[in-house]
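Work Package 4 report. The design task specified in the project plan requires that, given a folded chain encoded as structure tokens, an amino acid be chosen for each position. We show below one input record used in the internal validation round.
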């Protein structure tokens, strides 16, 4: 059985005493055992990262960037292997896994520009003969804790920028699909990163709690579900750390009666069911305004019932399995809840069976109509291939619903009316907004983050906010002896 251990100080470590199984969700078979780090193992990784920070922070930004350029090339050269690792452990279809690698690669490309991004500000003559400038300096050792659904891309949101800024990193990936991160760490070493700059620790709450409380961890980046994000934010903040914690979502598509319905239906089918709905930016609710609901259901239902579902390595599949049997059971339970709450189950994914993959964690696409805001299937994140349709009378009612929802990660409006679209962009209480774009994930040179209970902390991830998060500012004011005072000054200094 394959063992996935930790990667510390440029080397794979021995397996931990405690391990957990990693499945291939398409076959339902165990394919590896992943080590679950003990306190001593996490502390060892932090100690290596701390020791390395002394030298790494002195490497010039240009030379850090050169390592990232080599890393980028290695990722490009190994994209098929990386996508294979993702598909084998996560289940998403191979082309989608490749897309994930490319979106992660874009953050490395952004981080390659670090000499420019780190430039401070300079003011000559803030006072007579006095100059002032600000520097952006690294924090020290920083930690990242990532979810199962983007095992490659989400770690990339964090460590390339943190490391480019001069920090060293301890990464704790999801224990459900940790394999690809180990490979990333090997490639980073191959690119020329000194040992101890990027350290990978596998594990669960036991490992995470040490990262949240250890004195030598200066900042924590987290992506995952809202209850855990809130816990991470509260605990790490209480221990004096800078924290950004991205949580769950319930992303609404607002469908106006004037939208191009055929195009909107295609867009939502991909956005709701791609990656089996296990995307934090997946559309999980359509708010159908006015009389568009009937034709919407008519056109959408056959799309949902004809999704091509199978092993992610089989060509031309639309979606693969869910991550685990437990998660599949949780999503199925939500289908029961929706029926009990009185919603109409127009397409029922439980009827699916995949030939030669009967033990895989597959669930077909499901579509609920007549969902109302008081239902749990509307309020809670299901994180599976389940799409809810809510019918409302007008745009104002739709906007109010979105703004009153506890999550505010992503949303999209589909319309041909520019004035309505502009009103929506201005007034909607959501962090990432699409206009006729169903999954408005910002590019790497912009920042990614939701509002409300989809993000705890002031700064979004990657882009300009990433550089802000991983650096602290230092303001310097300087003058030279010829203009210094000859006696003590007791009044508050002002610039003349
Ligand atoms: P999760 O919250 O269960 O786990 C995320 C990470 O936290 C994992 O590394 C896990 O080991 C760790 N963890 C889990 N329980 C913990 C605990 N009690 N104490 C300390 N650490 C703990 O999330 P998941 O199931 O892996 O991922 C799916 C969730 O992530 C969804 O809610 C999805 O919306 C969210 N997500 C959000 C974004 C975003 O950008 N907002 C992006 C991707 C995923």
């Amino acid at each position: 059985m394959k063992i996935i251990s930790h990667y510390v100080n440029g080397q794979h470590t021995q397996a931990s005493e405690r391990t957990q199984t990693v499945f291939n969700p398409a076959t339902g078979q165990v394919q590896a055992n992943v080590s679950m780090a003990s306190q001593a193992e996490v502390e060892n990784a932090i100690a290596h990262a701390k020791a390395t920070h002394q030298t790494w922070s002195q490497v010039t930004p240009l030379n850090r960037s050169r390592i990232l350029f080599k890393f980028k090339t290695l990722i490009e050269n190994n994209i098929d292997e990386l996508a294979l690792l993702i598909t084998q452990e996560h289940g998403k279809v191979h082309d989608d896994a490749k897309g994930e690698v490319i979106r992660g690669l874009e953050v490395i490309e952004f981080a390659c520009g670090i000499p420019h991004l780190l430039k401070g500000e300079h003011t000559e003559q803030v006072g007579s003969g006095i100059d002032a400038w600000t520097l952006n300096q690294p924090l020290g050792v920083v930690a990242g804790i990532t979810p199962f659904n983007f095992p490659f891309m989400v770690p990339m949101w964090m460590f390339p920028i943190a490391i480019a800024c001069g920090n060293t990193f301890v990464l704790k990936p999801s224990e459900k699909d940790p394999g690809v991160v180990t490979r990333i760490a090997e490639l980073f070493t191959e690119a020329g990163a000194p040992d101890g700059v990027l350290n990978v620790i596998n594990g669960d709450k036991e490992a995470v709690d040490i990262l949240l409380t250890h004195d030598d961890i200066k900042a924590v980046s987290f992506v995952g579900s809202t209850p855990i994000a809130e816990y991470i934010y509260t605990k790490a903040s209480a221990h004096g750390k800078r924290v950004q914690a991205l949580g769950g979502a319930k992303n609404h598509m607002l469908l106006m009666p004037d939208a191009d319905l055929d195009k909107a239906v295609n867009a939502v089918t991909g956005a709701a069911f791609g990656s089996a709905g296990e995307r934090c930016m997946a559309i999980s609710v359509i708010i159908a305004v006015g009389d568009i609901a009937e034709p919407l259901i008519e056109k959408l239902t056959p799309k949902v019932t004809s999704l091509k579902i199978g092993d992610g390595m089989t060509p031309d599949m639309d979606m693969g399995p869910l991550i685990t049997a437990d998660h599949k059971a949780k999503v199925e339970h939500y289908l029961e809840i929706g029926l009990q709450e009185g919603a109409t189950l127009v397409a029922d994914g439980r009827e699916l069976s995949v030939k030669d993959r009967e033990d895989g964690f597959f669930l077909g696409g499901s579509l609920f109509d007549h969902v109302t805001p008081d239902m749990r299937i509307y309020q809670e994140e299901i994180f599976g291939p389940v799409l809810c349709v809510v019918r409302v009378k007008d745009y104002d009612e739709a906007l109010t619903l979105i703004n009153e929802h506890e999550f505010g990660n992503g949303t999209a409006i589909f319309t041909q009316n520019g004035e309505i679209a502009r009103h929506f962009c201005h007034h909607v209480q959501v962090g990432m907004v699409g206009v006729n774009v169903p999954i408005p994930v910002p590019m790497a040179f912009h920042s990614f983050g939701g509002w409300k209970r989809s993000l705890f902390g002031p700064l979004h991830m990657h882009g300009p906010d990433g550089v802000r998060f991983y650096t602290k500012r230092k303001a310097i004011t300087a003058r030279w002896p010829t203009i210094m005072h000859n006696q003590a000054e007791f009044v508050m200094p002002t610039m003349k």
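Residues 39-56 form the longest helix (18 residues). Validation will be extended to a larger panel in the next phase.
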